Predict the structure.
Amino acid sequence: MNYDLIVVGMGPSAVFLAYELIQLNNYKNILLIDQGKPVQERFCPIEKIGKCAKCKPHCNITCGFSGAGAFSDGKLNSYHLSSGNKDGSFYLGGNGAEYFRKYFNEQEIYDLLVYTDSVYLKFGADEKLYGLEYRDKIKKIQDKACKEGLNLISYPIRHLGTEKAHVLYEKLENYLKEHKINMLFETEVIDLIINDGIVSGVKLHNIKENTYYDLMSSKVVLAVGRKGASWLSNMCKKYNITTKIGSIDIGIRYELPNKVMSKINKYMYEGKFIGTPYPYGDKVRTFCQNPGGFVSSEVYDNSLTLVNGHSYKNKKSANTNLAILVSHNFTYPFDKPIEYGENVAQNLNRLGGNSIMVQRLGDIYRGKRTWPNDLKNNSVKPTLKSAIPGDLTYGLGYRTMTDILQFIRNVDKVVEGFADPDNLLYGPEIKFYSNEIVLDKNLQTNIEGLYSIGDGGGLTTGLMMASCSGIVMARILTKNMKCT
Ligand SMILES: Cc1cc2nc3c(=O)[nH]c(=O)nc-3n(C[C@H](O)[C@H](O)[C@H](O)COP(=O)(O)OP(=O)(O)OC[C@H]3O[C@@H](n4cnc5c(N)ncnc54)[C@H](O)[C@@H]3O)c2cc1C
């Protein structure tokens, strides 16, 4: 069977690629493939049974239509010029910033962000933008942070909410179906077909029927997300797809009372603190802050369980959670950041009996593990009930742990109570986007006809930029693609 275009993965990057091809009226024979299920069939049993069921064959949180976006709480970093930043600039996160700034001018990037945002609005995103109303108050906190060697980034944020994100992506799925985009679910792409530096198709495994077959196309877009990062890394080795060693972000999910974070939550919704704490000077940052949110877990390849967090639009907890991530940049001769991260996760998972581990900050300071009784008497109650109290310091490297603890002390000088002993650390939280594929202007790899978008190839690290990369891909393909 021949297709004009095959897209591996159905996360936001792939969904926005398909959406934009429809707008450009330039699609006929396009196929999207995902190992997970349609969005309306995706459920995470953790709320019902109280613990991660390690869904087989693939985690429902990260796989299926809209990928990791379906259960994300959908904070869209809008980066509008209207944010009121004096220089009128916008902040681009992730490696994608380098790509976009190299090949697009400011106006083009701005237009792309606004356009992508408008698609989210069209399918039901909340109109409200956080971070615009309290500019003066935000400036005061930023100045305080600056004195402590911390950069507090403030750009507008739109919050979809976990339950609403699901509904929004279902509408998008129906829209693609109505426009006759072919979608194959519960089908793994197990290999690529590449000969003499040219791609010609993919090898598939239909999970339900347990059948194996090939599908052909001279254009294949890889949109495999962090879930597919390890598989993609193997493909890169097998077919000499050029990559650079990216950094890997390893850290913890931090949970503390809403009242400690009340100002940041109210003024900004999400505060992105970035520091380089003593003595290593590594980049440490807060990421994915969820006011009134819930800590969650998700399962990756090799059954690795990682922690994450999200927040609903209406259902609220008494806590705020956020990631504290340390960027690890390995130097010669070590060049396997993904394997390093997997080892850290594996160790922590074993120590936690294959569950997420949780520890009180005060217990880390006192050099003791946290016991169930310590949690019972703790003022901050964990929102991830299945987390096992234990000792994270057995599994996280000395450097990572030192970076995190020093960073917490520094932020405490800006946000009083940030270093309270009752605050909770969950681990491991790891972002697998370190396999950075080298792409040309057309988002093409060194293999002819093989493209990469979204988080999996290390281009992006979040919903907004992943979606933007899909739109850019569609526009590039439309210029170059002749449909049958
Ligand atoms: C709990 C949670 C909360 C989050 N909150 C936010 C947030 O608030 N704001 C934000 O910006 N970002 C957030 N994120 C991150 C965001 O979801 C991702 O950045 C985004 O989904 C990346 O999109 P993508 O298209 O690159 O890949 P993904 O969404 O990861 O999708 C990749 C898809 O590819 C499929 N796939 C992979 N390999 C294969 C294969 N070999 N064969 C077939 N299919 C394959 C997977 O099943 C998956 O469906 C969150 C993520 C999670 C899990």
Remarks:
- Residues 2-125+161-244+435-480 form a domain with the FAD/NAD(P)-binding domain fold (CATH 3.50.50.60).
- The chain has two domains: 2-125+161-244+435-480, 247-431.
- The longest strand covers residues 248-257.
